[in-house]
Amino acid sequence: MKVTVRLPGPPGSGPRYDRHVAARIDEPARVRHLADVLYGGTPETAEELWRRHPGCAVLAVLGADGSVHVHFRGGASTIRLADAAPNGAPDATVVAGSLVHALLAAGAVILR
Predict the structure, then answer these.
(1) How many CB atoms lie within 10 A of CB 93?
(2) What does R_g of the chain's alpha carbons equal in angstroms?
(3) Which of 5, 34, 51, 110 has the most CB atoms within 10 Å of its CB?
């Protein structure tokens, strides 16, 4: 899926946009290899997924407690989103993974 994240710009300028491709880990290999953000899986499978997809910038997996473990080149973070998946909305892993990708693209430093 194509994802666009809108971030506020610096004072006096317009918003910044980050467009990227996000794919579930069970998508066909040809789709996964194009993805900037992969989502799905479990914390136990994250290391193997990360190793198999070196071109991926962000991997987001759901923890047992509902938190999202987000891996990115150079680090990892755990994010807890309140009510991230109301009816019809993307699940928490898509939201967290895409947000981290947009922040990294904007030059933000992600803290653990």
Answers:
(1) 28
(2) 14
(3) 5
Residue with tokens 């666009």: 4
Contacts 24+ apart (CB under 8 A), 77-83: 77/110, 77/111, 77/112, 78/112
CA distances from 1 to 27, 89, 108 (A): 11, 14, 24
Tokens linked to 63: 């923890």
* Residue of 73 and 61 predicted with greater confidence: 61
Write out the H or E segment, with its range, that includes residue 2.
strand 2-7
φ and ψ at 99, to 5 degrees?
A: -65, -45
pLDDT given for residue 59 in this prediction: 94
Examine the pLDDT at 44 and tell me if it is beyond 50: yes
User: What is the pTM assigned to this prediction?
Assistant: 0.81
Domain ranges of the chain: 2-106
Q: Are 37 and 3 in contact (CB under 8 A)?
A: yes
Q: Using the predicted structure, report yes or no on whether residue 87 has a pLDDT greater than 70.
A: no
